[in-house]
Design a protein that fits this description.
This protein is of the alpha/beta class. Helices cover about 30% and strands about 25% of the residues. The model has no long low-confidence stretch (mean pLDDT about 90).
Length: about 625
């Protein structure tokens, strides 16, 4: 019999081999590849052994594990490969990490025998949500910061009674840890994330495949687990950029894969978000998702600080220093957010807070140096450096590029004895460190940590966040304020301080009021005019380091099509050339270029990127 096998983790199309008639799709086998042997998965079988022999096909060397990949995992791998311009073997390599390929030597014990059936008392709104969710087969978007522990416990218990499996997907470890602490009393939760030991990850992966583990709570990769009878998928903080996984093989968004698996495998899907992404909200308002919202009242106060009234170059305003001192006297914590993620400096008018922006891309112009033209980092259009502000006529300009090092020195000067903790995407401390710190500061990664004692939260540079060189800057700025607003529900002494040169900015006012509907209406209109998601899909191509990689001109000629708008090339992270493609919704990424041609070109693709620089 002729079989087609996908080599795990390799960027090559499935290869044909001669194999035993007992082999079937999903089997893990060892096959010759060049001068070596490689692990592969049977993805298809064909009749015709004589034809195979005539073609000189090599033979399968060994059957390693029978039926290792269930049908659901094979379907998921095909979807990832097709939608993300990759190869099935690469996708299967994501689903089955190399270090947990072989099943554990010990027999896996079934979990869930002893379940605490005590049902928490649900609020009235939770009861209504439960009934609505039960009656519909559509996924549900739950827009709220409320605690839904009772609802989730009931949903999970019902799913287990049906004999089906459940997976909870979290974007960050602090959120996962808090969830596990709340629900492990009621349900047999198994954890799954990359920081676990190899033995435990292997036990969970193979236990899920065998149907012995009914409930898993994990980080992004948990959505790839080989469930065979999924009944419920819950995605927490669905709008978080941390749901995006950037591997050296393929990129994927855990939220999107959860929706795919729910539809494909007949599982119910619930998305929970404090400030839903524009794409998800648009689906809900288009009738593709159920939508429910519950607002939480605020006890504390939000304070807007007009930085035009502060001394030039000030990082910590006098108002913020007073609030930090007050929190210190009460023995409470403070959280300071400062965006330093922009690829280039921007300029801001010190008189009104205006930031020059490219009208075509709606991205803040890059400030190169004094006397030189401003440059759009995406389309490369230039604009003369303004002497006078077009909005207020002022002539005082300042570079918008505050940094964490300057903030650290300023904090040490004012609070020399306080315990400080810096949090960035590259430096994520333990949860215990976050609990014991007096002042926590960092980039948006700090929002993942939610110490209960935080009473003062501050946005140190709203203007820098709002003017990030990315079309999602408004959405991110609104979302970050929404996350910071959570502390205002804790105590009357809670304070949210926002430092800005534009205290009357409409987006800021909407964010502080939690007026998502007005924000959504304006932002979705802007996206439609500019041709950004949810009205078009984006593809981001980046040139690799291969000496044989095509130049940008040749690559653009290859992907040019009707219904495609190409921006670039421009320089992105790591000084690598990038090309941004806006794709009409009725087209697929593979309509532009197939996986084999993309690999040959030496360029890499990211479909539906969360950042374009």
């Amino acid at each position: 019999m002729v079989i087609c096998a996908a080599i795990l983790g390799r960027p090559i199309a499935p290869l044909r081999y001669m194999g035993d008639a007992t082999l079937a799709p999903g089997d893990l086998i060892r096959v010759p590849l060049g001068n070596t042997l490689a692990r592969a998965c049977v993805v298809q079988t064909e009749e015709g052994s004589q034809q195979g022999l005539k073609q000189g096909l090599k033979e399968v060397k060994e059957l390693l594990v029978q039926g290792l990949f269930p049908r659901q995992a094979l379907d998921l791998a095909r979807h990832i490969a097709d939608d993300h311009l990759g190869f099935p073997g690469q996708a299967l390599g994501l689903i089955l990490p190399r270090d947990i390929v072989m099943p554990p030597k010990r027999e896996i014990e079934k979990t869930g025998g002893e379940v605490n059936q005590r049902t928490l008392r649900m609020r009235a709104d939770e009861s209504r949500l439960l009934e609505t969710f039960r009656k519909s087969s559509k996924p549900m978007l739950l827009h709220s910061s409320a605690d839904y522990t009772a609802l989730l416990v009931k949903l999970l218990q019902d799913t287990m009674k049906e004999g089906k499996q459940t997976v909870f997907v979290f974007p960050d470890e602090p959120g996962l840890a808090g969830f596990h602490k709340r629900l492990s009393t009621y349900l047999p939760l198994s954890l799954y994330h990359s920081d676990m030991g190899q033995g435990e990850r292997r036990r969970v992966w193979h236990g899920v495949r065998q149907g012995l583990i009914p409930v898993v709570a994990g980080l992004r990769s948990a959505v790839l687990l080989p469930f065979t009878d999924l009944g419920l998928i819950v995605v927490a903080d669905e709008a978080s950029d941390s749901h995006r996984v950037r591997s050296h093989h393929l990129h994927y968004n855990a939220r999107d894969l959860a929706l795919f698996r729910g539809k494909r495998e007949g599982a119910r899907v619930m998305l929970i978000s404090l400030a839903p992404s524009l794409e998800t909200s648009h689906k809900a308002r288009s009738g593709k998702l159920l939508w429910a919202e519950r607002k939480i009242g605020q006890q504390g106060k939000a304070l807007i600080v007009d930085m035009k009234k502060e001394e030039e170059g000030t990082i910590l305003s006098s108002t913020l220093l007073q609030e930090l001192e007050a929190a210190k006297s009460r023995g409470m914590q403070s959280l300071l957010l400062l965006n330093r993620l922009g690829m280039a400096a921007r300029v801001i008018c010190l008189d009104c807070g205006h930031v020059p922006t490219c009208p075509a891309c709606d991205v803040a112009y890059k400030f190169v140096s004094r006397g030189k033209a401003l440059v759009c980092p995406v389309c490369h259009k230039q604009a003369a450096a303004p002497e006078q502000c077009p909005e207020c006529g002022g002539g005082r300009w300042q570079s918008l590029s505050p940094g964490l090092e300057a903030l650290s020195k300023e904090l040490r000067r004012h609070f020399p004895t306080e315990k400080m903790l810096k949090i960035t995407a590259e430096h994520r401390p333990s949860i215990e460190d976050a609990k014991s710190a007096n002042i926590i500061y960092g980039t948006s990664a700090a929002l993942e940590f939610r110490p209960a004692k935080v009473q003062v939260a501050a946005f140190l540079s709203w203007d820098a966040e709002r003017s990030r060189p990315d079309f999602r800057s408004s959405e991110r700025a609104f979302r970050d304020v929404a996350y910071l607003r959570r502390i205002l529900a804790s105590t009357p002494q809670s304070r949210l301080v926002v430092q800005t040169f534009r205290p009357r900015n409409r987006l800021l006012i909407w964010a502080l009021k939690g007026d998502y509907e007005t924000f959504f209406a304006g932002e979705v209109r802007r996206r439609r005019e500019l041709g950004y998601p949810p009205y078009r899909r984006l593809l981001l191509f980046e040139q690799g380091q291969s000496k044989n990689a095509w130049d940008a001109e040749k690559f653009i000629e290859t992907i040019e099509r009707d219904g495609v708008e190409i921006l670039g090339p421009y320089v992105g992270a790591g000084a690598k050339p990038r090309i941004l493609v806006k794709l009409r919704r009725d087209l697929c990424p593979s309509d532009l270029i197939d996986a084999a041609t993309l690999y040959k070109s030496g360029w890499h693709a990211e479909v539906d990127p969360v950042e374009i620089l």
